[in-house]
């Protein structure tokens, strides 16, 4: 069996290396506390390498993350305004045709199945590098996904948008954690809905670039994203870990999700950002 190596930046942007289904390296998280991480199926109550290792190992056991047993479909929301939840909802409602996302074991892919988007993105984030796993790629393809590069499992979101365009999709969304990539996608594919994710620790310059390129901006534990969003955001969803709509397209997606959910929601005017009673600590 060839080696399968996967690098993710987990809770607190902690670098984790998984090789052949085993956690072989865990770095140091950039934050000390995260309200979202405390809600994980295997909660990270203290932001330590040991707790993060336990969480990642639980994901491997639970749904096969970074292994040939990886489950790729899921239904229920984990959080109401998560990136995968928003994109799944928009595709269900017919507002989007396809989403360009990234999966462990497959890399960049084009998905049109809401359950596939949620199954991949709702269960993991912060994928930096991955290796192709034939079983995972086959499972994605069985559920309507198209993998950008099955040979290498490359992560290239701009190329993923190009692939989605080639496949004939017009209303395309893409997730990215790289500000320069978001700006390049905006320039090359101006009508794409860009969702900025995994922004903890982003520099002030990249936060400004991301805020200018993205339609939806997830704040994670980023101080600079909150500061940039305050200047031009049209809408904020959530308070502890807010998501900002920077454009009318982003605002439409969030409002559509609100219309779809049965959860009680409060809507009121305010100067943004509105802080929550609990936020990641420290913001960085």
For this entry, give a set of tags:
8-stranded mixed beta sheet, 2 domains, globular, 284 residues, single chain, alpha+beta
Quaternary organization: single chain
Structural class: alpha+beta
Average pLDDT metric = 95
Flag low-confidence runs: none
The 3D shape can be described as globular
Number of helices: 9
Main β-sheet description: 8 strands, mixed
SSE topology string: EEEHHEEHEHEHEHEHEHEEH
Rg over CA atoms, rounded to whole Å, is 18 Å
- Cα distance, first to last residue? 40 Å
What's the number of extended β-strand segments?
12
* Overall number of structural domains: 2
Fraction of residues in H or I helices: 25-40%
Strand content bin: 15-25%
Order of neighbouring strands in the sheet with most strands = 7-5-4-8-9-10-12-11
What's the gist of this structure?
InterPro entries: Methan_mark_8 (IPR009181). This protein has 284 residues and is α+β, with helices and mostly antiparallel strands. The relative contact order is 0.13.
Tell me about this structure.
This protein has 284 residues and is of the alpha+beta class. The protein has two domains: 1-67, no CATH class; 72-260, no CATH class. The protein is 33% helix and 18% strand. The protein has helices at residues 49-63, 83-92, 114-121, 134-142, 157-166, 179-188, 204-213, 223-232, 248-260, and strands at 5-10, 14-19, 22-26, 98-103, 107-111, 127-129, 146-147, 172-176, 193-196, 216-218, 235-237, 243-245. The strands form two sheets. The protein has an eight-stranded mixed beta sheet with strand order 7-5-4-8-9-10-12-11, sandwiched between helices. Strands 3-2-1-6 form a four-stranded antiparallel beta sheet, covered by helices on one side. The longest helix has 15 residues, at 49-63.
